[in-house]
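User: Okay, second chain of the day. Same drill as before: sequence in, structure tokens out.
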Amino acid sequence: MIDRYSRPEMARIWTLQNKFEVWREIEVLACEAQAQLGDCGITLEDAVLIRERADFSLERIAELESTLRHDVIAFLTNLAENIGEPSKWVHYGMTSSDLGDTALAYNVVQAIDILLADVTKLQEICTRRAFETRDMLCVGRTHGVHAEPMTFGMKFAKWAHAMDRAKKRLLDAREVIAVGAISGAVGSYSSIDPFVEEYVCEKLGLKPDPLSTQILARDRHAEVLSVLATIAATAEDIATEIRALQKTEILEAEEPFASGQKGSSAMPHKRNPIISERICGLARVVKANAQVGFDNVALWHERDISHSSAERVVLADSTLALNYLLGKLAWVLDGLVLYPERMKANLEATRGLIYSSHILLALIDTGMMTREEAYGVVQGAAMQVWEDVQSARTGPNLMELLAADDTCPLGAEQLENICRPENFLTRTDIIFKRLKAL
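Assistant: Same drill. Structure tokens below.
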């Protein structure tokens, strides 16, 4: 497991202590259900005694398992040592996967509930910062190249919507995995009444699987892992944008840099986006783990255990890593340092090229040129400006070149009015109305 990146609440879910606590609860609940049924010899008094006495020791289970080579039998043996005579009713009619799969589903639900809180917090941070920066002008980039003016608030709004989708995906995944199975050796209920399954699942907040073949079908777990991978990829997308914006040549945004923090062992001037880089790195782990989930779907006949060892790693690691990186992302976005003056300088860096689309439309609107003719006029001037910019030469901006071009019917004053960044943002209110409606 990714111990270094564990947060306590999530880490506890995947401890042996919690695993066996859930196992114990399932076994006790099954005994209570059997007692209510009255199909076997267990009495309600027996069920009460089993609940009172059911206890385990991690050390004793490990000692037993070293000989038995079977974790469930080691656990049941330890319970029996503490329960005494009524222990004969524990695990009655059940098989190992009835216990293990139901408990694992319950653990995954516990983990998803924590992740839901994480993405909800991120959505709240992004929404708040979107409205704080809704009018903060910056340049939009496509293919990494300056395109048109936009606002930084649009970036935060995009991320807020992404977290809203993440929340919905997690809720769907929670429903898919929130099932239990206590149906016996091949899922036919040959030795156990379906009431036991219904009783246990209801008490755990799960639903009975409609048809388990001793195990829960692993497409459920694959879906969970794919959702975790998708959310990790979204976090990576956000972190990658922050890393790009923190480049020295751009420097429009920067991760928080604490007092006393050091950026490089060799270069004292460095302030590096280390948390965003860490988020990107851990996202790769979560994405890779999703493939294990897909590989676990195909099993022999009614079951084998080729899935078991692998999913013990990937379900824990993916939820631990995602919980950690979402927490770090929340810290970065909440404290993200923005540089509006640098954004303004970047807007002006290409000498008006970012206004080319509006100039093109204005030329078409004159009715004096076809689109192709207008495009040629604007592009011809733009390429001259582009060469000056990339060569760091002084020269006229796009509007000045076009004003001096006899083939351009727009005058200097008209071009100046067209080439204002605010003109590109007259309809952005709809974006923030949609955000407010989330």
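The chain has a mean pLDDT of 95.

User: Thanks, on to the next one.
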